[in-house]
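User: Could you check the structure of this?
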Amino acid sequence: MTNSGSTTDCASIESGIYHRAPHIRLQSVRQHVDHALLLAVLPCIAVSLLFFGWRNSGLYGLAIAGAMAADWLCHALMNRPGRPRSLHAPLIGILLVMILPPAVPWILAAVGAFIGVVVGKALQGGYGNYLWHPTLVAWAFLQLFFPTELAPQQWPILDRGHLLTGSLQRTEQADSYQGYFFLNGDKNTECWQLSRPIDVIISHYTKNDTPECSLRDSVLHKLPPFQDTLLGTVTGGLGETSAIAILIGGIWLIYLGHLKWQLPVFALASAGLLACLWPLHLGEGSQLTWIPLVASVDGFPVGVSVVLYHLTGGGLLLACCFLAADPISTPLTSRGHALFGILLGFGVILFRSMGVAPGSCYWALLAVSTLVPVIDRVTCRRVYGT
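Assistant: Sure, the predicted structure tokens are below.
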């Protein structure tokens, strides 16, 4: 199944044949999309196991088991012949784990994946009919009912001397932080507890939560070098941290035609533009400063750092490249994908400026997905005479 911008599809939408966009066309194409997505996320899975431990492979396994159990149950209750063969259910479980904290209880991954398939997919009409991505439905359920587990104050990452094999339980708190490669603990330290970079940035937006230190101090002593967000040596969701790994998968999907380039490009461009303009606190207890891109403190260009962290942190890239590659919960046309990306980028920065963290990009994606039927109607070319 592919998102086609043909006039036939648009005419069908205008005539009301399809109540929700898009829809199932070919079973073989559907399987091809699922295979491509599974291959695209492999670099992110490898990075997650490297920096958060091989034990998290069990987290992926339980999520896949929960999703497949739900798929089999729904298949049986609907009295369908044979057995489910689609890779869509395991993909839901894998994507869910990628946006969860590394230290989340394993049972939540299985429960969330089960809920995602049952509520997010089956109860919305099955493949081709759901409005919201089942992974996001599962994440929203866990976020609402288990907020502490999904929104910890400190997030773990393995020490560079214990990559892949370290334990997330043997942790140490970093007093000052200038980057992952400058962390030095004793021989018993296998894991560090740190703040997510995007959470530090968000604390400088809200008026009711005036930051304890200036933005310059945050950039110098609480945030890693920007290069760390590219490599993945930062804290965050299991599959969120490495911009390079995500971009490799995204470019692969664009090459295969399963992800339209307009969506990630316009999403990142609109998010970057609004981040350049939206006001924030520069100093301790200071008033909001507009156009932070050009702001500097003691000659230090803090505004540029803010924009870069917005683009590479907090799951925005993952949402653009993987979750938005779902052909069901995104628009049909290229123009629709561009509009979808613009709304997503603006929504992410607005939610972050209001202190919606963690998961502001996923709430924004849920909100914009709700508008997909409207976006399809607005962006489809009208076919006269049909």
